[in-house]
């Protein structure tokens, strides 16, 4: 089969489509003939050599995919050859075939094309596990998403609105903010021209928001704490701005704040299977109803993975970038 190979750690140009051996499946895995995979920020870090795959995972990039099942392991009961699915992966999506644990496989949501289904597994599992399962966002609460126009952001806006939250977003251009507004965001803040803490306070009568999903890390830590309501929850899923900061912890105690952080890729198979099951139960109906839609910026062939990485690192895109096998 063909797969995108990191020829050496470096810039996008190190990604090359090469002939490699087909993956072998374990007893509890399925083999998926890939229709499409989606880019994630973690892929660019792995390409640079700063985010190695977990032990035992595929060395190839790609944390999600959609496609058709080609083979099933002897312990697999739910899936059969020919099923159209999408899957959460620990790696290997940038290829024509990939092995996936059966517990991380989902049916293609009703009304969504096989290709577009690749845009959902990573964002749905990330947002559902962090914002809903761990931060317990509920109807009537306020929710701030940093990077509202990203793949994570565009999904989070839609699913939070579906469950009755008031949604605040930050983004860096008027075009991105208009897109977020169109998806249902209630308050759209340009972080380049506005102080998001001041705007959050203004829009919440000085209280702050209940939940924040943050991918910036260090530089936003104090501002995020300052933006939270009593009992507020901050969830950090990335460190695009760095990992080190100085912070005044007083507000944590005074307002009973909670700070959590988690990745998805390094979780156990058992934990991922629980998350995937919860996503199918709680997110897939919203997609089936047309209330949560795939947001795809562009489709590129696997051979143009380098161009996809350049686009992602430019941050000019809105939503997901898909590679079609």
Please characterize this protein's 3D structure.
- The relative contact order is 0.16.
- The chain is built from 10 helices and 15 strands.
- The N and C termini lie close together (11 Å).
- Helix 2 packs across helix 8 (269-282).
- Strands 3, 4, 5, 6, 7, 14 and 15 form a 7-stranded mixed β-sheet that branches. The protein has a 6-stranded parallel β-sheet with strand order 10-9-8-11-12-13, sandwiched between helices.
- It is α/β, with parallel strands linked by helices and 325 residues long.
- Helix 4 (174-183) links the parallel strand 9 and strand 10 (187-190).
- The protein is globular, with a radius of gyration of 19 Å.
Portion in beta strands = 25-35%
Shape: globular
**C-alpha end-to-end distance:** 11 Å
**Would you tell me the overall average pLDDT?**
98
Q: Structural class of the secondary structure composition?
A: alpha/beta
Q: Low-confidence parts, pLDDT < 50 over ≥5 residues?
A: none
Strand count, sense and barrel status of the largest sheet are: 7 strands, mixed
How many strand elements? 15
Count every helix, treating DSSP H or I runs of 4 or more residues as helices.
Answer: 10
Order of helices and strands: EEEHEEEEHEHEHEHEHEHEHHEHE
What is the percent of helical residues?
A: 25-40%
Radius of gyration: 19 Å
């Amino acid at each position: 089969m063909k797969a995108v190979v990191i020829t050496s750690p470096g810039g996008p140009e190190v990604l090359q489509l090469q002939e490699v051996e087909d993956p072998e499946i374990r007893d509890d895995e399925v083999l998926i003939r890939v229709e499409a995979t989606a880019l994630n920020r973690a892929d660019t870090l792995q390409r640079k050599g700063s985010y190695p795959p977990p032990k035992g995972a595929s060395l190839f990039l790609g944390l999600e995919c959609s496609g058709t099942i080609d083979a099933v392991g002897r312990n697999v009961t739910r899936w059969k050859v020919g099923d159209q699915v999408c899957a959460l992966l620990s790696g290997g999506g940038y290829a024509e075939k990939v092995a996936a644990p059966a517990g991380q496989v989902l049916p293609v949501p009703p009304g969504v094309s096989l290709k577009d289904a690749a845009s959902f597994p990573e964002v749905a599992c990330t947002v559902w596990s962090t914002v809903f399962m761990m931060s317990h966002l509920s109807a009537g609460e306020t929710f701030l998403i940093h990077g509202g126009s990203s793949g994570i952001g565009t999904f989070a806006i839609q699913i939070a609105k579906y469950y009755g939250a008031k949604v605040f977003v930050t983004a860096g251009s008027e075009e991105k903010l208009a897109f977020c507004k169109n998806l249902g965001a209630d308050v759209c803040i340009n972080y380049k021209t506005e102080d998001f803490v001041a705007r959050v306070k203004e829009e919440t009568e000085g209280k702050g928001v209940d939940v924040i999903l943050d991918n910036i890390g260090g530089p936003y830590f104090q501002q995020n704490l300052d933006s939270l309501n009593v009992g507020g929850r901050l969830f950090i899923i990335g460190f695009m701005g760095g990992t080190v900061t100085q912070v005044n912890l007083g507000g944590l105690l005074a307002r009973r704040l909670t700070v959590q952080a988690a990745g998805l890729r390094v979780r156990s198979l058992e934990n991922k299977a629980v998350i995937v099951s919860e996503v199918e139960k709680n997110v897939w109906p919203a997609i089936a109803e047309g209330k949560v839609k795939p947001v795809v910026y562009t489709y590129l062939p696997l051979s143009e993975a380098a161009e996809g990485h350049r686009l992602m690192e430019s941050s000019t895109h809105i939503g997901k970038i898909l590679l079609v096998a």
